[in-house]
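Summary of Year 1 activities. Much of the first year was spent building the evaluation harness for sequence design. The harness presents a backbone, in tokenized form, and records the residue chosen at every position. We chose the following record to illustrate the format because it has been used consistently in internal testing since the harness was completed.
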């Protein structure tokens, strides 16, 4: 993905037919930019947990996800 944006994330979720059995983790910089765009688009309101099209979006805390890359986590145990 060239740049993580709301539209790009929506397209990624739809194109990959993601369900709530996964979560998406993003590099902290990408996550922050996405959250700021989301807040701007939604009148400074954000849901907890942060979701797009029902898919939870998380900030990577491991340092393993590069900027502008998407990592999928299996949420089903």
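For this record, the design step produced the sequence shown next.
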């Amino acid at each position: 993905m060239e740049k993580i944006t709301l539209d790009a994330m929506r397209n990624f979720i739809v194109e990959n037919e993601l369900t709530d059995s996964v979560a998406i983790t993003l590099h902290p910089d990408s996550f922050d930019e996405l959250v700021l765009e989301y807040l701007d688009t939604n009148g400074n309101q954000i849901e907890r947990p942060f979701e797009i099209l029902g898919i939870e979006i998380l900030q990577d805390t491991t340092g393993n996800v590069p900027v502008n890359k998407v990592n999928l986590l299996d949420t089903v145990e």
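The longest helix spans residues 28-41. Quantitative recovery figures across the full test set are reported in Table 2.
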